[in-house]
Amino acid sequence: MSPAIQLRQLSKSFGEIEALKDIDLDIQEGEFIALIGPSGCGKTTLLRHVLSLETASSGEIMVGGDTPERVRRENKLGIVFQRAALVPSCTSLQNVQMTLDITGVETPLTPSGLLDEFGLGDFKDHYPHQLSGGMQQRVNIAAAMVHNPPFLMMDEPFGALDEMTREFMCEFLGEVLLDNPKTTVLVTHSIDEAVMLADRIVILAPRPGRISAIVDVDFPRPRRRELKTQSAFGEKVLEVRRLLYEVDES
Amino acid sequence: MTNVSRESMGYLLMIVSVPIIWQLAVTLSGLQPFILPGPGIVFKTLGNEWSNFLYHTGVTMYGAIVGYAFANLFAISIAILFVYMPSVQTFLMPWFIVIKNIPFVVIAPILVITLGTTNMPKFIVVFLVTFFPVLANVVAGLRAADQVLLDRMHVLNANKWQIFWKVRWPSAIPYYMAAHEVAFTGSIIAAIVAEFFFSRTGLGYLIVTAMESYRADVLYGVTLIAAVLGLSNYLLVVWLRKRLLRWQDA
Ligand SMILES: Nc1ncnc2c1ncn2[C@@H]1O[C@H](COP(=O)(O)OP(=O)(O)O)[C@@H](O)[C@H]1O
Ligand SMILES: [Mg+2]
What is the pTM of this model? Predict the structure, then answer.
């Protein structure tokens, strides 16, 4: 079976800056990839290519055997940015509903049901500014997956949250994805988060943005946060950290 | 005390203070009533000639509202053109900047000569005075749309219409309301000034005839009416903003 997402010699320059250079990566259907690396190494840029928000300078991207543009037109993409992409004048429920209104997709998921599942049952009629950061981000994730897209891209979705909320959201996301399997790419700065969630961790190096290492993570799922207390988890975190330090020193 | 009642207290206090300070000024300055009439004389004039004042106020308001309505219609349409077709802006901007910077008191007599003593010169003067602030604010508001939301809309394959109604227009509303606050009062001022030049009706005409016949009481009456119009317009906009932007302080 061909991979769900295929990057072939993907390169992107912004003027002098080589944001990405010769990226080769195959992502399998249902796989969870974490992208990690120092600031400015092209993580966001890579994600934006998959979302058809950028066009490659050279190389090729295939998503579900098709171009990103076509996949986007089929409403198969979901996106979560670091900052919640919510309309301030719409309630939680309206913001989630909006995804369905725009895509016109029919899914077994309902905005209301999803918000219940996300623990926001009592906050459906609240406006974004009335919600905490963690709640906003949950609405944001609900809005990103209510049309049940087979591809979910997340750019530091928990970056702005405090440690406890972050940990909770991380476990929560793992559970949600277990129930609604998707091919997922998560950009993160947190090694813990990457090890908790990913099947593979892709480590990027900057200038030019390139893949420097890939680490397999094969802890069984569901992964609860107790996993963090086990030594195998710690070893994996160390392995990734060493690889990241190498990137930094190179 | 709640904020609202505290605010209304302030207005109430002002309304009570004005006649007192006014009367004090009359008494202390010792000026003759035909130069500085006291509140008693002015209110009596307003009472005696109320139908006359009402008629001329109506004429001025009519001119202001018609001109302002057209200004809004055009300003919003052109703002949308600017945002979606930047080349239109490149072409029109130099014209707008020149027109905007010709003082409208200079344009008014020319309009009267050209268009005669119809309502047209008044409409046009009001239009010229109010069009630009509304245009500038709506353009700024449409452009201030949250980039993260725009990206989300793009990924969801939203069409231009949906992006406009769900992201750009909501983003412009607060800017638009801010323009109203200034421009609506501006429309009344512009209508009165336009009436100075040619009109046989309206508050501007009343001012001119009152000056010719040394009717200070009428002048002060018109001033009071203008103040009430300006203030009620301001309060109307504030009320509208509260209703339209309910979600902000809900
Ligand atoms: N639209 C753009 N225009 C110019 N340079 C850009 C643009 N987007 C990203 N870059 C540059 O590309 C590099 C990679 O950026 P980015 O993908 O945002 O990195 P990351 O998400 O890993 O922090 C950076 O040097 C950044 O300055
Ligand atoms: Mg980034």
Answer: 0.85
A189 alpha carbon – ligand 2 mean position (Å): 10
Q: What is the C-alpha separation between A120 and A136, in angstroms, rounded?
A: 10
What CA–CA distance (Å, rounded) separates A79 from A187?
A: 12
**B-interface mutation test, from A48, A63, A74, A89, most B Cβ less than 10 A away:** A89
Task: Annotate A200-225 with DSSP letters as a single string.
Answer: EEEEEETTTTEEEEEEE----SS--G
Q: What is the pLDDT along chain A (250 residues), one digit of tens a residue?
A: 689 999 999 999 999 999 999 999 999 999 999 999 999 999 999 999 999 999 999 999 999 999 999 999 999 999 999 899 999 989 999 999 999 999 999 888 899 999 998 889 999 999 999 999 889 999 999 999 999 999 999 999 988 888 888 888 888 889 889 988 999 999 999 999 999 999 999 999 999 999 999 999 999 999 988 999 999 999 999 999 999 999 877 7
**Can you list the domains of chain B with their CATH numbers?**
38-249 (1.10.3720.10)
Distance A15 CA to ligand 1 centre (A): 11
Give dist(CA B245, CA B250) in Å, integer: 9
Q: Cα separation of A245 and A213, whole Å? A: 12
CB distance A55 to ligand 1 below 6 Å: no
**A17 touches ligand 1 (CB under 6 Å):** yes
Q: ipTM value, please give it.
A: 0.90
Residue written as tokens 């949906």? B162
Which ligand gives the minimal distance to the CA of A39?
1
CA separation (Å) from B136 to A81, B66, B72, B93? Answer: 30, 20, 11, 11
Q: Which residue of B147, B149, B156, B244 is the best one to mutate when testing the A interface, meaning the one whose CB has the most A CBs within 10 A?
A: B156
Dist CA A29 CA B120 (whole Å): 68
Is cis: bond before A88, omega within 30 of 0?
Answer: no
